[in-house]
Amino acid sequence: MKYRLLIVEDEKHLAFALEYNLSAEGYDVDVAPDVATARQLVSRSPDLVLLDVMLPDGNGFDFCREVRTAGVTVPVMFLTAKGSLDDIVRGLEAGGDDYVTKPFALQELMGRVKAVLRRRTWDGATRATAAPGAGAYRFAEHEIHWESREAFAWGRPASLTDLEFRMLRYFADNPGRVIPREELLANVWEVSPELNTRTVDVFMARLRRVFEREPAHPQHFLTVRGAGYRFVPKP
């Protein structure tokens, strides 16, 4: 399978270097120098979007939020010089799946790209081999269909990204157990547990917004201070 990547980057030298190196790895690569072009190219269903934040006609955070609102679940990896903790949280809350700050080592970036695409390959294989009607999971008033990547919260469709599905599945497979952040990073993100742990915090908040009646007072997705998180299907 040949993957298609979309680079949204207005700095010509960096865009060229990324396109050259990713193409050399065997990927099909599209490049958008601005938000307007990115809107057109995202319709080609890329497997991953590498997204800058500061663009000549808009903001990468806003563009990511726009595509998520439209129901587009393609993984988004931010590549930006805006590397403060607040910026990282803002990018993840906008719907990003990963956040890489400039300057970055090319080898590290390639590893992160491969990790994202490997997750998509495994998830796609799971969907392809699942028996029709198998894999439905219910908790509270919610229903999840793992094989078709469909989620329903209170009977209404809920749009989840691949990472949100993976995180939800990991909790469903480990109900009641306290799961450390490091374990989630290693087994859901497949990255070093040394990655900023706010990544997991933000994704927990995203799940709570979808499945909790009062996200500020969760009943299912609980924080265990100093230890990690626990999923409680039946409070």
Q: By helix and strand content, what is the structural category? A: alpha/beta
Alpha carbon gyration radius = 18 Å
Domain unit count: 2
Describe the largest sheet: 5 strands, parallel
What is the CATH architecture assignment of the largest domain?
A: 3-Layer(aba) Sandwich
Biggest β-sheet: strands ordered side by side in the sheet: 2-1-3-6-7
**What do we call the CATH homologous superfamily of the largest domain?**
Response regulator
Low-confidence stretches: 125-133
Q: CATH topology of the largest domain, which one? A: Rossmann fold
SSE ordering = EHEHEEEHEHEHEEEEHHHEE
Helix proportion of residues, in percent? 40-55%
Query: How would you describe the shape?
Result: globular
**Separation of the first and last Cα atoms:** 43 Å
What is the averaged pLDDT score?
A: 89
CATH class of the largest domain: Alpha Beta
What this model shows, in words?
By secondary structure, the protein is α/β, with parallel strands linked by helices. It is built from eight helices and 13 strands. The chain has a five-stranded parallel β-sheet with strand order 2-1-3-6-7, sandwiched between helices. The chain has a four-stranded antiparallel β-sheet with strand order 8-9-10-11, with no helix packed on it. The longest helix has 24 residues, at 106-129. The chain is globular.
Q: In a nutshell, what does this entry contain?
A:
This protein has helices at 12-24, 35-41, 60-69, 85-93, 106-129, 162-173, 181-189, 198-211; strands at residues 4-8, 28-32, 48-51, 54-55, 58-59, 76-80, 98-101, 136-139, 142-145, 150-153, 156-158, 221-224, 228-231. It is of the alpha/beta class.
